[in-house]
Amino acid sequence: MKYCRLGRTGLYVSKLCLGTANFGTGKSSGKGDWGVVDEKGAFRIMDYALDCGINFFDTANVYGGIETRGLTETIIGNWFKQGNGRREKVVLGTKVGRIFEKSDLDGPNNVEGLSLYKIRRHVEASLTRLQTDHLELIQMHKADPLTGWDEIWEAFEGLVRSGKADYVGSSNHDAWQIMKAQEAARRRGFMGLVNEQHLYTPLARTPELELLPMVKDQGIGITIFSPLFRGLLGIDAFHPEKRPMNAESRKLFEKYRDQAEQYSKLCRELGETEANVTFAWELSRPEITSVIVAPTCIEDLSSVLKSVDIVLQEDVLRKIDSIFPPTVEASPYI
């Protein structure tokens, strides 16, 4: 495994991050939720990830399934409880700010958002489920346009001062929103954001316009979620015998069929799987800290471990650009 610093911090995390959104009841509700790996399977995956050198784990307080949100954190907490240094070896990040059904935030405050009231209560609940007294990284799951940054930072500053969180990050934030957050943090003498979790793949290159240049300038890491673009850039699209695609992914595949087939041909010529080439492409960008892998079995994880060692040559990168062109060319005035 390879490691790099999380943004401008001195904390080192693995280039592959274990995504845990598939941990839950072990059953699918048919509503598009994840949570399809039961506790026993999740334990095997986490043990294997740790053995492979993956020290960065990602979760969220709403993961676990449509009807059982929070179950993922509970499963991780039960795994930590087994001991043998599991908690001490993991850089743990969770997320808050989404609606949490059946929570103690009843009435008008049981809505999405980042009020001080909600952040504190959600973090306390996450710590209880995770059976830990601190988080290395606490992230805002999505932006809140209604709550001011002074209130948001007041909440996170308190968590950092009390030792319940080391660093703060964001997810699904635009570049301008992150800059507003950083300016407010500077006024308060606070470190601010150190990581942004975002969608960035050969098929979703909008971050190249503003987000990636901004995080490079500001010393903020980028962790990629859904790196295979709902399976379109992995085994789902090209090997349906391994894992059938759902209706939504199939519709997406039909939209990009020509590009997907060109890409699959290129990967075969390279002698690599589509998933490994995709991860290698994403990790080739210096702004990218880590790629989140959300396996449903050990084989899903073992099959992409080599991606951190794949170096794509310039001619290959140009071929990928020809298949999946950048959103727009760079401005001639920059």
Automatic annotation (TrEMBL):
A cellular component term, taken from the record's GO annotations: cytosol
* Pfam families recorded: Aldo_ket_red
Gene3D superfamilies given for it? NADP-dependent oxidoreductase domain
Domain NADP-dependent oxidoreductase, first and last residues per copy: 15-323
Name used for this protein in its record? Oxidoreductase
| Organism of derivation | Eisenbergiella tayi
